[in-house]
C-alpha cells in the first residue's frame, strides 16, 4: 500500500500531521508512506522511521500554475492508494482531485458550494475538542479513521534524533545550570507579546530561579530580540551567543535544555514531542482548544486572555472589536505580567 500525506503549512502543523504516518505504519508496517511538506519544515520529520520519503515543496513556487501542474503529473506517476490532506489548501485539493489515487481524504469546505469532488472521502471538521491531545490532532486522526480502524491510536507526535545528534554539545560553558528556552517573539506580530512584558518575565525568572535563559527567535527577528534584551535588567542570566540556524538545530538544542516558555507556535509542539515541560502564552487571537495539546496544568501549562477575562468581548461593540483586530497589540496589552507571572511561577516550581 502506498500513502501520501500532504501538509503544506507551518512547522507545528507538519509535526502534528506526522501522527498519521506513525499510526498508519504501526498497522501496516510494510506500507510505503510519503510526506509532502514545505522545505523549511523538514526538520521535524527527518529520521522518522514511519516516513519513507519526504517530498519537498516551496510555498511561493507552488502558487505558480506550471509548477503545480508539474507536481500533479509527478504525483500521478507515483500511483498512490491513499492521500491524506489535513490542511485542505487550494493547491493540495487540486493535487488530490487529479492524483488518480484510489482514496483521497480531506476536510470539507465550510462554504456550501466549496466541495467540488476534491476528495473521495470528505470529512466534516469537528466543532470542538474531545480529547487532551487538542482539536488539531483530533482532526487529523478523524482523517486517518476514514482509511480503517487504527485503534489503539497514538496521539503524541514524535521527533526522532540520531545518536550522533544527541551527542552534539550545544550548551558548552552554559551546561552548569538548567536552561529555560524563552520564545521572545511569536511567529507573527499577532502571536507576539508586548516587548516590555517579555522583559518583565525575563527579569522575574532571573530573579527567582538559578537558571540560564536562552532567547529563541527566528533569523529575521534578531534586531527585535535585541530590543527586548536591552529592556531586561538581569542580563547576566540571558544566553544570546547560542543560536540555532535551522529547525533541526533548534530541535537538537531544545533536547539539551530543561523547559520552554514561549508564545504558542511550532517550538511548543517541538518541545512537547521531545518530552520537555512547556509553558505556553496564547495569543488572544488563537483558539486555544485547537492547539493546546496534552495540557495537564503541571508539565504542560498555558495561559489565554479569555480564560482570565471570559467576558472580555462583551464590553466591546462590533466596531470596537473590528478596530482591535486590526491592531493586535490592543488585546495583548490586557494579558499583563501580573496575570502571567503567578502561573509561570507555579510551572517553574513544578518543573525546575
From TrEMBL:
Pfam families: Glyco_transf_9. The keyword Glycosyltransferase applies. Keywords: Glycosyltransferase, Transferase. The keyword Oxidoreductase does not apply. GO terms for cellular component: cytosol. One of its GO terms (biological process) is lipopolysaccharide core region biosynthetic process. It comes from the Bacteria. CDD domains: GT9_LPS_heptosyltransferase. One of its GO terms (molecular function) is ADP-heptose-lipopolysaccharide heptosyltransferase activity. This is Lipopolysaccharide heptosyltransferase family protein. It comes from Flavobacterium rhamnosiphilum.
Amino acid at each position: 500500500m502506498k500513502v501520501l500525506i500532504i501538509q503544506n503549512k507551518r512547522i507545528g502543523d507538519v509535526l502534528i500531521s506526522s501522527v498519521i504516518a506513525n499510526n498508519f505504519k504501526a498497522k501496516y508496517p510494510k506500507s510505503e508512506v510519503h510526506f509532502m511538506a514545505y522545505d523549511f519544515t523538514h526538520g521535524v520529520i527527518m529520521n522518522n522511521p514511519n516516513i519513507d520519503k519526504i517530498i519537498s515543496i516551496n510555498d511561493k513556487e507552488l502558487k505558480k500554475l506550471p509548477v503545480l501542474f508539474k507536481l500533479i503529473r509527478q504525483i500521478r506517476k507515483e500511483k498512490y492508494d491513499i492521500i491524506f490532506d489535513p490542511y485542505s489548501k487550494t493547491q493540495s485539493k487540486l493535487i488530490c482531485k487529479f492524483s488518480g489515487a484510489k482514496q483521497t481524504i480531506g476536510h470539507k469546505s465550510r462554504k456550501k458550494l466549496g466541495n467540488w469532488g476534491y476528495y473521495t472521502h470528505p470529512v466534516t471538521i469537528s466543532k470542538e475538542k474531545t480529547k487532551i491531545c487538542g482539536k488539531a490532532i483530533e482532526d487529523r486522526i478523524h482523517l486517518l479513521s476514514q482509511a480503517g480502524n487504527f485503534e489503539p491510536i497514538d496521539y503524541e507526535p514524535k521527533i526522532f534524533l540520531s545518536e550522533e545528534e544527541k551527542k552534539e554539545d550545544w550548551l558548552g560553558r552554559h551546561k552548569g545550570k538548567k536552561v529555560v528556552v524563552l520564545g521572545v517573539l511569536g511567529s507573527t506580530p499577532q502571536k507576539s507579546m508586548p516587548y516590555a512584558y517579555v522583559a518583565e518575565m525575563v527579569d522575574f525568572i532571573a530573579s527567582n530561579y538559578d537558571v540560564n535563559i536562552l532567547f529563541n527567535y527566528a533569523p529575521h527577528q534578531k534586531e527585535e530580540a535585541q530590543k527586548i534584551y536591552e529592556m531586561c535588567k538581569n542580563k547576566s542570566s540571558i544566553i544570546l551567543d547560542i543560536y540555532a540556524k535551522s529547525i533541526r538545530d533548534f530541535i537538537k538544542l531544545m533536547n539539551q535544555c530543561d523547559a520552554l516558555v514561549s508564545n504558542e507556535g511550532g517550538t511548543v509542539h517541538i518541545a512537547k514531542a521531545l518530552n520537555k515541560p512547556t509553558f505556553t502564552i496564547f495569543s488572544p487571537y488563537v483558539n486555544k482548544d485547537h492547539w493546546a495539546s496534552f495540557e495537564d496544568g503541571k508539565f504542560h501549562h498555558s495561559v489565554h486572555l479569555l480564560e482570565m477575562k471570559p467576558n472580555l468581548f462583551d464590553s466591546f461593540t462590533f466596531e470596537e472589536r473590528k478596530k482591535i483586530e486590526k491592531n493586535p497589540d490592543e488585546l495583548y496589552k490586557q494579558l499583563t505580567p501580573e496575570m502571567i507571572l503567578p502561573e509561570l511561577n507555579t510551572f517553574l516550581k513544578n518543573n525546575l
